[in-house]
Amino acid sequence: MRTTLIALSGLFVAQIALAVWLNLSSGGLAGQPPGTPLLAFEADAVERLTISDADGQSVTLARADEGWRLPDAGDFPADTTKVDGLLADLASAEQGAAVATSDTAAERFRVSDDAYERKIVLERESGDPATVYLGTSQGTRQVHVRRAEQDGVHRIAFSTWRAPADRADWLDKTALQVDPAEIASLKWNGITLEKVASESNGSESEDQGETDANAAGTATWQATGTPVTDPPADAVNALTDQLSRIRINGLVPEEDSDAYQTAALALDIVLEDGTTRTYTLLKGGDDTSYAVRSSTLPGLMTVSASTAEAIVEAAADPALTGAETPPEESSPADSSEATPQENASADAAQSADPSEDTPQQ
What we know:
- The structure is a single chain.
- By secondary structure, this protein is of the alpha+beta class.
- The chain has two domains: 36-170, no CATH class; 180-321, Immunoglobulin-like (Sandwich).
- It is built from ten helices and 18 strands.
- The strands form three sheets. An eight-stranded antiparallel beta sheet has the order 5-4-3-2-7-8-9-10, covered by helices on one side.
- A hairpin with a 2-residue loop joins strand 3 and strand 4.
């Protein structure tokens, strides 16, 4: 009996040793040790990526000299900071221990070829594309993941919402913004506002002093095509400030572009480097929606009604256009009150009436 127990104990120890050896030699449950990077290359190596979701949406982003672009939207500028942030997170992600390797595990955790929350295809100049599937969440900032060539399902520190498949989420919403310090002149409705040289503050060269003054909003302007030759700085700044804060909401689908036909404002913006941007502000058929067409960007961009109306109002300021401000209409209550002349006449009439001046006996 004692011999049998010893033999069984030895066999059990041998089985444990064999399991440990197999696990180490194969790299874990899925043939890969924990802590393995999700990607086998750096983020800077990615030249193109395509993100798809379970609803059939898909967006492609391509690297360009001046940043990331959306090739399916006429190479519209993408939010470069957001794209670089996504790639940095994926490149730094480390896979935890495999949670499953069965044939049905990929579908259960939604990281299979046909059932996933996100499918991300990353392309480089050389080498095969890398495909990553993101699936169900596991706690806070933990998501199941599988590379296309893997059988095992792992976890990484990531949030799926950071990889949206909607094109609108990747637009550079600031693409229309213009730095007021870079504006040399503005032209609209026959009016031209032109920035004139500012005096140096004495501590810098003349050119540097001009740049500093303009950047600080102290540059002076001259106007032509309007009775106002020296427009007040606050009126000009109100317009340039709106141009510096304009944000895009989205792109108008081609089939809906005919809805924007009424031009509310056409504005030429000449920059200090000699280039010109033309913004045409268009009103939709419902008079509450607006879009902008730019000479330097593809497509038609929607903007909020408050933004559009603020720009139109700033451009129509009488301090810039010289238009007369219509007089304020008096209210019925105001019209019933006697004028100073009428009050004076009444006082004179009362003084001339002896019956009111003679005391009673």
